[in-house]
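Assess this one:

_____
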Amino acid sequence: MKRRKADVVVVGAGTAGMSAFRAAREEGANVILVESGPYGTTCARVGCMPSKLLIAAADAADAAHRADAFGVRTGKVKVDGVAVMNRVRKERDRFVSLAVEEVDKIPASRKVHGHARFVSHDTLSIDGHTEIQARAVVLATGSSSIIPDDFKALGDRAVTNDDVFDWTDLPGSVAVFGTGVIGLELGQALHRLGVRVRMFGEGGKIGPLTDDAVITEACSIFGQAFALDTDAKVLEKTRKGDSVDITFKKPNGRKTTENFDFVLVAIGRSQNVKQLGLEMTSARLGDKGIPSYNRRTMQVGKLPIFVAGDNDSDPPVLHEAIDEGRIAGVNAARFPAVKPGLRRAPLAIVFSDPALLMVGERFSDVDEKAVVIGEISFKDQGRSRVMLKNEGLLRVYADRKTGRFLGAEGVCPAAEHVAHLLSWAVQQKLTVATILQMPVYHPVIEEGVRDAFRDAEEKLKG
């Protein structure tokens, strides 16, 4: 067995791991990067980028279908599934290659391939062939799709987002289990591309939303477009040759069975921490095996161990993973001189149409008695009607005493842009009064955002 020493070991070469590696190197640390799988990030391979490629094709198809409403005659729209998936895979592979190129630039002496497992709080064994003792360790091993046993029984008819982007053609039908971010984005995209889709959820939830008023609006919008049950009663899933029979109760209580080519399992992802041997350290572990950590420093207790990316309990979004990796990498290199790093205002976007947004404090985080809620329906909002995108609801939360803007949830047109404006306002700790002093052009979607703050202002006065 080889024995090596380093200042910092970074386990995982994804977005968070590479951010930590760069940050530690910039601090002058001797860093070794450990990776057990293929190089290239989750975002590039099976996450944000390929999903947006599929969504872009779906949006193009939807625009063609809706053109007639503007008086633009396009004729019958045909979706070429082979061509759609060819572009998805081609562009996906390009994004992956760019991520791999970054890893390839790292000297071979700085990389070790294999599964890392703690021998002690400062020593890792890599598949039994290498042992590395380090002053500090950064864990950024990512996450994996959850596939319960009853789905595994369906064999290759049960797929996850890891599999979808390798399809060479679009299937005829897909049952989507899970109405979270992945399920909603892929389910709607497949529907718009001509795939028969039925979505099954649990608990009445959709996306990451926690505000019941916004959830109700979102369910209404999407439920009018495709078969959606956010609180489904599924009775049986049975493999039938190269398809799956699903028996369930419809919202009206009627029992029915439908056949699908594939079942897309999108019920969540689990952090890749179970095989790390954290029990060999004194780290305090939560129910899911995630070590307790300080989200400002990313440090696990007082140990020389830091977490980043999907290995923590924050939402698994890329910009957060980059920030967490940088904080973890800097503190690992400086250990034991650990300091808090910059954490930005919470920001989450689901790229459905209309898109979902969550900014700052969620509805479930605020004390309803201590806040006022301003809201705007986009049904009659000017620019939204011009674009035939006039649906959705935005709710903003402000401190009743100070007027400070705390957060928002919504389903609305141009949400990916609206969310950024709102997150900047949260991070700058702006009040409703200050926000209403800002310029807003006409006619734009942001006029609707201003109306939500005007509603909040009236309630603050009352």
